[in-house]
Amino acid sequence: MTTDRTKGEVWGFAGQEDGRLSDVPRELLGKGRELADRLGVSLAAVLMGDGVEGLAPLLFEAGADKVHLVEDPALKVFRGKAYRHAMVELIKECSPQIVIFGATHMGRDLAPAVASALRCGLTADCTDLQIGDYADNKKKGEDGSPTIVKNVLQQIRPAFGGNIIATIVNPYNWPQMATVREGVMKPLAPQPGRTGEIVRHDSRLAGVDIPVEVVEIVRRHSTVNLKGSRIIVAGGAGVGSKENFKLLHELADALGGAVGGSRAAVDLGYCEHERQIGQTGVTVRPALFISCGISGAVQHLAGMQDSAKIIAINTDKDAPIFKVAHYGIVGDLNVVIPKLVKAIKKG
User: How far is CA 248 from the centre of its chain?
Assistant: First the structure.
């Protein structure tokens, strides 16, 4: 027996702050376009705020066929209860089959609250999303064959500390919802002039008590831009000390790159958290990634394995990092890096 549910749009939540979009909505729409085309349905962006209609053309250029626009002064800044209520009501009205959020501070607050209110599933921090069929062996037809639920969202993420890659499905309690790590999905090339349909919706916030008042927003801007760096030199626990991390800075300076680190290096205090690359840090795709003293755990590889060229330096010839590296150097980074710096400076 077969269950085929292919109706309903694919949605990407277009989180904005101060009337500006980050790269995350574009990344969601890039993956959403792939999912929607596979299902043969429309791709829509959900845009909430106050006076943000002007952002819709950017979302069309990023791949959206439609923008569901919800404007209300109560949505000017992100407040969990207001956004949750508006999003839940919008989903009830439109019945999308898939809703994806960025795993940003906003998405990590909003998505679970919406999933809880709708009593549907949510998979957090996905590294990939695909469409496939699900065979339910607990529900069998008269002939004893399993029920086949067609076109289910396969939500893929590392699990058990990164030791396995889990594929999670939500075949029945829809919408299917997931948050996606920033930088994991690739945005489409912008299509200037591309247009679509703007659908305006009432926020339905009249009479809703919103207990939080935002008095002031204070932001600390990061001085590190790993996502925008074409060259990254990253260190792990094998660097040995915070003092030794200065070698990585010297190499990065010689190459005109940035310095990153694994979670182990951050936990040991060798570098700042904003430099962390991997499942619990940022995802990067530089032209050149130089790994120094990093073993290559799955959690770290998830954040850098799509780099165009990877050079690994490690004393352990069997380190997993060498399996993804294009070039490997088995040796002590305290010896190798100064030689590299000297060679680079010589031109």
Answer: 27
Supply the CATH number for residue 255's domain: 3.40.50.1220
Domain CATH for 154: 3.40.50.620
- Tell me the C-alpha to C-alpha distance, in Å, between residue 211 and each of 79, 117, 173, 218: 9, 18, 30, 20
Helix H, strand E, coil C: the string for 43-61 is EEEEEEECCCHHHHHHHHH
Are the beta carbons of 261 and 271 closer than 8 angstroms?
yes
Tokens of 288: 């050149």
Structural domain includes residue 170 = yes
C-alpha distances (whole Å) from 145 to each of 137, 148, 343 are: 8, 9, 66
- HSE-up of 62 (CA within 13 Å, CB side)? 27
For residue range 131-160, list pLDDT tens digits in order: 999 888 778 777 778 888 889 999 988 776
Give this prediction's pTM.
Answer: 0.76
